[in-house]
Write a structure and sequence with these properties.
Length: 337
């Protein structure tokens, strides 16, 4: 059974930036590549205008709602290949109901995001961002920061990335406290505690939980008030887990020592956001996964999932394997003998 080449829409800037091999893989298979007019995260209305006639997507953190997936605009769509790990912006049950396969790339970003978490933590504590800004203005003024070694790191969420952060913490002689809905018995050197205790005792608090109804707005006014005035807050997970106005108040009132954010409730961060002018804040544009070799591997994995399905094979790393038993499945998959 020969495969008919597919039309593939790319909404993440990662693929044009570092995914040249992935694009060539798709082109060599005869696929038509369409690069989104604007890179994601795209809104439902933006996607509706771009996915007409599209067979496959290499997706940013776009808004794949039930309304969109149920709409005529998506009636040719067979697979959403999520570039990355988070899939909270995809209505997976709606995709399954419509026979659309959803893939992602778990495990590919663990080390890269964990490394970036420590990059932010070290830079924030030593106030590298402040002295750099001063140097670019022609100043020569040292700024006293805080040590990291020997302090307490609180990790909220203990999946693959949280564990990778904990492994790095050992090299910095950090005491590690963890709050997790699923405490691990196979990970030595960390102590599982309540969120209340973690916030009260930690010098650094780093978020690594998945976004869910239970974690949305997890860190708010009460949680920032529970932190030490010398504590630093780091978020490389999801912006929606944090009450940003409460964080802004905590910074402006010097109730915590500083914050480093790579993710935000609304992305891109609006130009007028008051977070841009908060004291001792380090901001980056959701780039914790932006390391070239990692980006190349993730792009190839996303492209390979599309090619597998196009060639009637079940892809690896599928979020909704139940779709293959559904009569609504839009792709033809050969059953193994």
């Amino acid at each position: 059974m020969s495969a008919t080449p597919w039309k593939v829409l790319v909404t993440t800037d990662a693929v044009p930036s570092v995914g040249g091999q992935a694009l060539q893989l798709l082109r060599d298979a005869g696929c038509e590549i369409v690069i989104s007019k604007r890179f994601g995260p795209l809104t439902e209305s933006e996607l509706a205008a771009e996915i007409i006639g599209v067979d496959a997507l290499i997706a940013s953190h776009d808004s794949y709602t039930a309304a969109l997936l149920d709409s005529p605009a998506a009636n040719q769509l067979k697979i959403i290949a999520r570039w990355g790990v988070g899939y909270d912006s995809i209505d997976v049950p709606a995709a399954t109901r419509n026979g659309i396969v959803v893939t992602y790339t778990p495990g590919f970003l663990d080390d890269t995001v964990a490394n970036y978490t420590f990059t932010l933590m070290l830079a924030l504590a030593r106030r590298v961002h402040e002295v750099h800004a001063g140097m670019t203005r022609g100043e020569w003024q040292v700024t006293w920061g805080d040590d990291v070694s020997g302090k307490t790191l609180g990790i909220v969420g203990f999946g693959r990335i949280g564990r990778a952060v904990a492994r790095r913490a050992a090299a910095f002689n950090l005491r590690v406290l963890v709050q997790s809905a699923h405490p691990a018995t196979d990970f030595p050197g960390v102590e599982f505690v309540s969120l209340v205790r973690l916030l009260a005792e930690s010098d650094f608090i780093s978020l690594h939980a998945a976004l869910s109804p239970a974690t949305r707005g997890l860190i708010g006014e009460a949680q920032f008030r529970a932190m030490k005035p010398t504590a630093y807050f780091i978020n490389t997970a999801r912006g929606a887990m944090v009450d940003e106005p409460a964080l802004l108040r905590a910074l402006n009132e010097h109730r915590i020592a500083g914050a480093a954010l790579d993710v935000f409730a609304h992305e891109p961060l609006p130009a007028e956001s008051p977070l841009r002018h908060a004291p001792n804040i380090l901001l980056s544009p959701h780039q914790s996964s932006c390391a070239r070799s990692t980006g190349e591997r993730v792009s190839l994995a996303a492209a390979q999932g599309i090619l597998d399905l196009m060639n009637h094979r079940q892809p690896r790393l599928v979020l909704n394997p139940d779709v293959f038993a559904s009569r609504a499945l839009r792709a033809v998959v050969k059953r193994e003998a």
